[in-house]
């Protein structure tokens, strides 16, 4: 796989307080890269840096393929934002805003991209409805369609199943997987829903005060167990990493 981005020795901070130190990893074309880690470990901060919204203290984020203006972003959304008074069409079309030709004109094939985005996310039947009247699952799929209008290459999804019921979350995950397999999209995704998201990811970037690491998804749970063993004396009860209990070692369970 080619890389679409290389992140080298990245250090990020707010007002002199370091959140991420010397982090290096790459993003491979066509993969699902899951970003996990305990609350406050810097996942959202890292996403802001990938989107160019904050400047690194040191180090570099470089995109190696042409994704200029071309990363679709699905932010974490609050309930207030979900009561936004706009139609589905208006919300999805707003995805083109970062890619206007000469800063003014929609892409020539905008309507085709829009239709395809609705098809891929299965929301064509609600396109005339008001965004605020839709279910949580439909709203997330509208926001995913908007991200698809912003990019046909790469998506960054911040907690895409947050607040969804299990059925809607599972639907969302199957769409994300299909975008990778059938559309060749690269997906960078933050999630706390480790059981499911690790199973559909290719690689996992784990941010942690004990040290960040990036590994293949099938190695992830063993790597986290190793971090616990090395740094926390084998105890998991004080850990906020989000690792499901059954993935803690037998020793850890006995000690708890
Ligand atoms: P995560 O997404 O993993 O929960 P964040 O990236 O949101 O973590 O936050 C990492 C740290 O940076 C936290 O300690 C948080 O309080 C701090 N932080 C986040 N945003 C800001 C900000 N705008 N100004 C100052 N500190 C911030």
Walk across the major sheet and give the strand order: 5-6-7-3-8-9
**Helical residues, percent:** 25-40%
The mean pLDDT is 86
Strand portion: 15-25%
Alpha-carbon distance between the termini? 42 Å
Which regions have little confidence, pLDDT < 50, spanning 5+ residues? 249-256
Record field, number of beta strands: 9
Indicate the radius of gyration in whole angstroms. Answer: 19 Å
Tally of helical runs? 8
Backbone structural class: alpha/beta
Main sheet?
A: 6 strands, mixed
Structure, explained:
This protein is 33% helix and 23% strand. The N and C termini lie far apart (42 Å). With 256 residues, the chain is an alpha/beta fold. The protein has a domain of 74 residues. The structure holds adenosine-5'-diphosphate. Adenosine-5'-diphosphate binds next to helix 1.
Care to give the gist of this entry?
The chain is 33% helix and 23% strand. It contains eight helices and nine strands.
Layout of helices and strands, plus pairs?
Layout: E1 3-14, E2 17-28, E3 32-37, H1 43-50, E4 58-63, E5 71-74, H2 88-93, H3 110-121, H4 136-150, E6 154-158, H5 166-183, E7 186-190, H6 194-200, E8 203-207, E9 213-216, H7 220-231, H8 250-255
Parallel strand pairs: 3-7, 3-8, 5-6, 6-7
Antiparallel strand pairs: 1-2, 1-4, 8-9
Helix pairs in contact: 3-4, 4-5
Bound molecules: adenosine-5'-diphosphate.
């Amino acid at each position: 796989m080619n890389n679409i981005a290389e992140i080298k020795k990245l250090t990020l901070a707010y007002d002199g307080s370091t959140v991420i130190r010397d982090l290096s990893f790459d993003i491979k074309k066509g993969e699902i890269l899951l970003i996990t880690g305990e609350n406050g470990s810097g996942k959202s901060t890292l996403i802001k840096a990938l989107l160019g919204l904050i400047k690194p203290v040191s180090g570099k984020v470089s995109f190696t393929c042409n994704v200029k203006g071309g990363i679709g972003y699905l932010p974490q959304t609050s309930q207030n934002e979900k009561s936004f008074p706009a139609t589905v069409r208006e919300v999805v079309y707003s995805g083109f805003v970062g890619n206007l030709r000469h800063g003014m004109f929609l892409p020539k094939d905008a309507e085709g991209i829009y239709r395809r985005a609705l098809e891929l996310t299965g929301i064509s039947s609600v396109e005339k409805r008001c965004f605020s009247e839709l279910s949580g699952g439909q709203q997330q799929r509208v926001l995913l369609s908007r991200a698809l209008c912003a990019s046909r290459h790469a998506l960054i999804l911040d907690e895409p199943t947050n607040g969804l019921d299990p059925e809607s979350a599972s639907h969302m995950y199957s769409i994300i997987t299909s975008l990778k397999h059938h559309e060749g999209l690269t997906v960078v995704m933050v999630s706390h829903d480790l059981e499911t998201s690790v199973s559909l990811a290719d690689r996992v970037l784990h941010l942690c005060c004990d040290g960040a690491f990036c590994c293949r998804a099938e190695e992830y749970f063993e790597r986290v167990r190793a971090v616990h063993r090395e740094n926390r004396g084998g105890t998991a009860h004080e850990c906020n990493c989000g690792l499901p209990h059954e993935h803690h070692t037998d020793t850890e369970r006995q000690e708890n």
